[in-house]
Amino acid sequence: MLIRYIKNAQGKAVKSADIYTKEEHGLKLEDIDPDALFITRKLRSAGFEAYVVGGAVRDLLLGRKPKDFDIATDAHPRMIKKVLPFSRIIGKRFRLVHVYFAQNKIIEVATFRSNVEGDNNVFGTLEEDAKRRDFSFNTLFYDPKDQYIVDLCGGVKDIRARCLKNVIPLEVIFDEDPVRMIRAAKYATTSAFHIPGNIRAKIRQKAHLLKSISPSRLTEEFYKVLFSGQAQPIFAAMEKLHVLAAFVPKLAESLHRTIFGYRSAQLHQALALLDAEVNSGKEPDRSEAVSFLVAPLLESLGWPTRATLENFEEVLQILKDWFKPIIPSNLELETALRTLYRVWAVRAPRKRPPRQRHRRGNGSSTTGIHHKPEAPSL
Fold first, then answer.
1. pLDDT recorded at residue 300
2. Residues of the chain with pLDDT under 70
3. pLDDT at position 306
C-alpha cells in the first residue's frame, strides 16, 4: 500500500491518505463509465486533478454496477466549463457543473469543497473535501489515470467490514443535514452494512429534525427510495430507526405490524412487488409506483366497494393527507387513483385538459395558442 503525504502548517510532511493500487483494490477500468473517463482525461490534460468519487467507487468495490458516476476536481466551475463547453454551471449553495452527453445523459462535476464552517461556496483541497462528506465509504477518490484509490478516512476497510462509519462528528452530522439519516438507512440496507449502536442512538434522537426539511426535498428522497429496488427493506429499516415517523408519518403507522396487522402485511407485500417490478427492468413511472403504495391503504378502508364517480375528489384528498409532508404531484396521485378505479371497475372523472400557459410581452399570444405561419405564396 502506498501513502499520500501533505505538508502541515509547519512545513512537515504528514500522512494524508492510504493509496490502494489496482492490484489491491481490484477495480477494472472497463467498469468505469466511458464518459466519466473522458471528463477526467480532459481535466487532467488541462492541468487539473480529477477523480471518480463517492457512491460509484463504493458500488464498484461492492461488485455492483453504479447508477451514476460523479467527478471531483480542483478546477473551479468556470474552468470546468471552459474545458468542457457542453456543460452548465448550476446551484446556489455550492456551484456544480453538469456535463451533457447524448440521450439526455448528465454527469455531475464538483470542485473540491473547503471545510470552512458555515460557508458552502468556498473551494478547497481533496483532503478538505473528504472531511465534508458524510460517511467513510463516500470519501474514496478513484484516479483512472494511475488506477489507484485515494482513501482518506478508512473507507476501503469499512466497506470490506460492511460497517457504516461517520466522517463528520456525530454531534453535528445530522444537525447539519437531517437527510443524512434517510441516507444512512438506505446505505445500510442496500449494501448490507451494519450501523453501530452510537449512530443508531443518535439517529433515533435526531429523527425529529427531518420535520424541518422542505417537502420538495423530502419528496425527492422518497422517490429515490421507491425506485431503489429495495423500497420494502429500506422503509422497514427507517421505521425501526424512528426516521419514517418524521419522514412520512402515515406510512410509518401503516407499516407498524403491532397496530395495523392487515394493512401492514398488505403494504409490505405491495412494496415487495414494486421492488420486483423495478428490479425486472420495467421501470414504472412515479404514478405507477405510488399506486403500489396506496392500493393497500384504500383497500383496508373499504374504498373498492365505496368508490364512485362522485367521491373521486374525496379519495384523492385522503391520499394527499396520507402522504404529508411529502408532496407527490396532483397528476401523479390522480393517475394512480384512476388506475385503481379501473381495477375496481369504477368509472373515474374525465381527465382535466392541460393548463394553457400564458405568455407575456413582446407581442406574444396570451392564450397559449400559437399558429403556424403560412408559407409564402410563389
1. 86
2. 116-121, 257-263, 352-378
3. 94
Which pTM was predicted? 0.84
How confident is the model at residue 353, as a pLDDT?
58
Active-site residue, 175 included:
no
- As assigned by CATH, the class of the 1-161 domain is alpha beta
Q: Which residues of 311-348 are buried (b: 16+ CB within 10 A; e: fewer)?
A: ebeebbebbeebbeebbbeeebbbbbbbbbbeebebeb
Residue 134 annotated as catalytic: yes
The residue extents of the domains of the chain are 1-161, 169-351
Name the packing angle between helices 286-300 and 215-226 (round to 10°): 90
The one catalytic residue in 18, 59, 74, 134 is: 134
Contact 140/62 with Cβ under 8 angstroms? no
Residue 7's DSSP bridge partners are 13
Q: Please state whether the peptide bond connecting residue 325 to the residue before it is cis, i.e. omega within 30 degrees of 0.
A: yes
Helix (H) or strand (E) holding 51: strand 50-53
Other beta carbons less than 10 A from residue 208's beta carbon: 13
DSSP 161-191: TTB--BSS-TTTHHHH-THHHHHHHHHHHHT
Classify domain 169-351 by CATH number.
1.10.3090.10
Q: pLDDT, tens digit, for every residue of 198-217?
A: 999 999 999 999 999 999 99
Catalytic choice (31, 68, 175, 285):
68
> Does the annotation mark 129 as catalytic?
no
Provide the pLDDT for residue 369. Answer: 43
